[in-house]
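Chain A, query sequence.
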Amino acid sequence: QAQLVESGGGLVTSGGSLRLSCTASGFDLENYGVGWFRQAPGKEREGITCFRSSTESTFYADSVKGRFTLDRDAAKNTVYLQMNNLKPEDTAVYHCAAVAWLAISTARAMCLMTSATDYWGQGTQVTVAS
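Chain A, predicted structure.
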């Protein structure tokens, strides 16, 4: 069964760091745009960082720019989200997603998607205490 599985969430104090992992099974992430989305209670889904191809820059939302980094390990079929200088407003459930790269025009477009992605992980909770 093709799926994405996230791990690495948890409770951290303000200013701390966490590293989330997202491993794909049953399909090759190299053929997909990948991204991280988050959703806090009562708020809309937010695409915070997306990667489409090595020929364009990784997209970062203003809310995380300079603090979060998306990394990929093709050998492990895994995407990471390094989160530094975490703030209470970063508290949310974080999901990784994959979209066939031919179906998206840019990394930014992927992060702005409101429709369903091809693959969507189950999510991992990140809680930042002040």
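The chain has a mean pLDDT of 96. Helices lie at 107-111.
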